[in-house]
Automatic annotation (TrEMBL):
The lineage of its organism: Bacteria, Bacillati, Bacillota, Negativicutes, Selenomonadales. One of its GO terms (cellular component) is plasma membrane. The chain crosses the membrane at residues 12-32, 79-99, 143-162, 182-200, 212-240, 246-266, 311-334, 362-382, 402-420. This is Alanine or glycine:cation symporter, AGCS family. It is a multi-pass membrane protein. GO terms for molecular function: amino acid:sodium symporter activity. Its main location: membrane.
Length: 471
């Protein structure tokens, strides 16, 4: 067995049924443990996104923190991942994406609460936080806590160069090359220059850029996808019915809007949960690193704000992609250029092309480029903070920023499947210490949640203004 095959096998195991069950199972446990408050307070949480007070401790506003987290989560998975899931798992996979995201709300809330609760200030006055600090300071068994923190930080640092960098740059280069013949080295050079211009100045620069790019790209995709859905509105009801029918059918089924797609309930569940978790990253422990940088008066407030990232990523953006594909009539049809089923980005392009014609390629190319570039920015911050936990020296951190920017060129111009499998494995391995930490510190999470509900949420829902000092 060669190294590439070995890495592929390890990656398939890491992202296999056991990991997916652990991720969703932790979400279910936390949802019940928190008395379903993350669900009950979702509307309240969305309102909190725009609450902005500069006097609180932190580096960026709650909105910028959420946009930084969303910049890393809203990526190629929302376009390519959804299409892949619907081909391999049928339209029902989208339903399982929503179900996993519903429980992911509690997971994202919990990990963000711990990130703010246990954050600290670094040598240059910036906030440093995330699961590694919760493990180090929250877990009473110091050996276990520090060991888990080391492993998590190591996995994040290694994953940042692959999943958060090279794969994203390569997706942009491939999209522009296939659609418009743009040379990969040109795309790589542009991405590298733009990335370095933003990354070299740190989190405040990333937060400002993300707060503009993420809403703009989301609005662009929302409008264009909405047009496709409206034009194909006659097929939408049948598409939704087919999604739920295939999601809960124990027998292999085919037909309807699914074309020649055949999938059982278990297959739909497997691909829906896998792509949902990959898209919104709930339970991986990455988004809380951005949450720790936010200016906030209470850990739970930012927990609720960052929790909405899972809602927007999977329940809105992924849903739009799924409805576009289901209503277009191209799911399960043959691509005449390849003689195989439409899949991945090609399927999404074909769906958009039913309304926009040749402009479908342009829309997906723009969306993929914006989604992927924003992911590069968000993941640089995750990797930087993880490396900072391992090595405190500032020259090393500045060197990481420059190296990260330069590596985007390598990713855009080189196909490195072994590196991608390795980094994908690291991405999955991040979840193990993070989920252990969430289960270990579930009492801390519950105490923060119930206190905030009692002292703040109930009063603010009545119209009172409440401000708490962050402990």
């Amino acid at each position: 067995m060669d190294f590439a095959t070995l890495m592929a096998d390890i990656n398939n195991f890491v992202w296999g049924p056991v990991m997916l069950a652990l991720l969703v199972g932790t979400g279910i446990f936390l949802t019940v443990r928190l008395h379903f408050l993350p669900w009950r307070n979702l509307v309240y949480a969305i309102r909190m996104i725009f609450r902005h007070r500069d006097e609180h401790e932190g580096d960026i506003s709650p909105f910028q923190s959420l946009m930084t987290a969303l910049s890393a989560t809203v990526g190629t998975g929302n376009i390519v991942g959804v299409a892949t899931a619907m081909v391999l798992g049928g339209p029902g996979a989208l339903v399982w994406m929503w179900i996993s995201a519903a429980f992911g709300l509690s997971t994202k809330y919990a990990e963000s609460v711990l990130a703010v609760k246990y954050r600290e200030t670094n040598s240059v006055g910036e906030m440093s936080g995330g699961p590694m600090y919760a493990m180090k300071y929250g877990i009473k068994n110091k050996f276990a806590g520090r060991a888990l923190a080391f492993l998590f930080a190591l996995f994040v640092t290694l994953a940042s160069f692959g999943i958060g960098n090279m794969t994203q740059a390569n997706s942009i280069a491939a999209a522009l090359s296939h659609s418009y013949g743009v040379p990969s080295y040109v795309t790589g050079a542009v991405i590298m220059v733009l990335a370095l211009a933003v990354l070299i100045r740190g989190i405040r620069s990333i937060g400002k850029v993300s707060s503009v790019v993420v809403p703009a790209m989301a609005a662009f995709y929302f409008v264009t996808a909405g047009i496709v859905i409206v034009v194909n509105i006659a097929a939408v009801p049948a598409g939704i019915v087919e999604m739920f029918r295939m999601a809960f059918s124990f027998d292999s089924v085919a037909g309807g809007v699914g074309g020649s797609i055949v999938a059982s309930m278990l297959t739909s569940m497997r691909w829906g949960v896998a792509r949902g978790v990959f898209s919104n990253e709930a339970g991986l422990g990455s988004a809380p690193i951005a949450a720790a940088a936010a200016r906030t008066d209470h850990a739970s407030r930012q927990g609720y704000v960052n929790m909405t990232g899972t809602f927007f990523d999977t329940m809105i953006v992924c849903m739009l992609t799924g409805l576009v594909i289901c209503s277009s009539g191209v799911l399960g049809t043959i691509n005449p250029a390849t003689g195989e089923l439409f899949s991945g980005a090609e399927l999404t392009i074909a769906a958009f092309s039913t309304v926009f014609g040749d402009y479908g390629k342009l829309i997906i190319s723009i969306s993929l480029s914006l989604f992927a570039f924003s992911t590069i920015l968000g993941w640089e911050y995750y990797g930087e903070k993880a490396l900072e936990y391992l090595i405190k020296k500032r020259p090393v951190i500045m060197g990481y920023r420059i190296l990260f920017g330069l590596v985007t060129f390598v990713g855009a111009t080189t196909a490195l499947e072994v590196v991608w499998n390795f980094s994908d494995t690291m991405n999955g391995l991040m979840a193990i210490p993070n989920l252990i930490c969430l289960l270990w510190l579930n009492k801390d999470i519950a105490d923060e949640c119930f206190e905030f509900q009692r002292e703040v949420v109930v009063k603010e829902k009545k119209g009172e203004v409440v401000d708490m000092s962050c402990e």
